[in-house]
Amino acid sequence: MKKKIGFVLVSMVVGMSFISGTSNAYGLNGIIAGKFSVEEKPTYKFTLTSAALKKDGGIVATGRTSNIRAWYNSYDENGRVFWSSQSEVLVEPGTTIVLSDGSTLSSSEYGEWEIKDESGSTVQTGKWDMGGPVYKIKQLKNGKILFAGSRGAYQIFEPDMTPFRSGMWSANAVIYDAEEMDNGNILLVGTHGNWSVINNEGKGLKSGRYKTSAITSVARLSDGNLIAVTTPGSYILFNQEGTIIGDGLVSGKNVVSSLQSVTSFPGNHVVVRDGSKVHILKIENNTAMNVYTGKTIVVPDEIDNKTTVKISDNKIFFGGKNGIFQILEVDLTP
């Protein structure tokens, strides 16, 4: 089911939305905000579950509510709803990406997946072979598509969604996130501090375990190295061969935090979400320096790393479990 909304404006909140904990010029400034809602279900309260950047600079997001299939909202870059569409198969949506052709690929916590075209019509559905939830989908530089999730399982699909290869990483643990390196290899991260490097055909190359309960999110930096964040509050730096080259605490203090996402920005900067707090880090000499900490008001929390999306070199999208989302300007001026 698809409904063309035109350019109906969602309820908006504009203005400052962060209380800064630092005094320098770095910061995040609220541009616009709204709440995930569906015209056909005006009384339903949705949880915003995932979001992805569209080719036109807008955002496509999935939301769920009890006992009905998931819904999609496609927003333009100013947060206005362009189209709204109900899922054909997903009840508990897991993660969403936009493919190179502009279509949207989404998974469920039961392993189903579906593809919608740029107007919101469903064009293909299926289910991965590994069983259980899918927590990460990523289209690789060679066009193939990586699924990863429960029990350390992963599966690589051809661009037409024909299964190519599947496997299990060395640890019997959930894979939360994955990032492709410049050389085409892929860093997988997950529970119990486990990480692994595979090539783009699914062959395991190396693995290890960090001293933490979970590695929740990973991003590629401007210099090609990678940064991951953890629960309870550490960062880990990997070089382009997948070797750890640095680590430390995001806050710079011995504070237990549940870091949920890390998003890369120019100049070796990253934005890290920490519950209701947000940090900006600057990475130099294999060390991450915290240059800004603020507290969000409009978006108080997130479920995991699937509701944070970089829109451009100075904009970011935040989604919250209460259905509220916000588009913010990222100021990287020292």
3D architecture notes:
The chain has strands spanning 2-8, 18-20, 27-35, 47-53, 59-64, 71-75, 81-86, 93-98, 104-108, 112-116, 122-127, 134-139, 145-149, 153-157, 163-168, 175-180, 186-190, 194-198, 204-209, 214-220, 226-231, 234-238, 244-249, 259-265, 269-274, 277-284, 287-296, 308-312, 315-319, 324-331. With 334 residues, it is mostly beta strands. The strands form seven sheets. It has a five-stranded antiparallel β-sheet, with no helix packed on it. A hairpin with a 5-residue loop joins strand 16 and strand 17. The chain starts with a strand and ends with a strand.
Helix content: under 10%
- The rounded Rg comes to 19 Å
* Count of beta strands: 30
> Which residue ranges are poorly predicted, with pLDDT under 50 across at least 5 consecutive positions?
4-23
Strand content: over 45%
How are the strands ordered across the major sheet? Answer: 1-7-6-5-4
Give the overall average pLDDT: 87
Please tell me what the overall shape is. Answer: globular
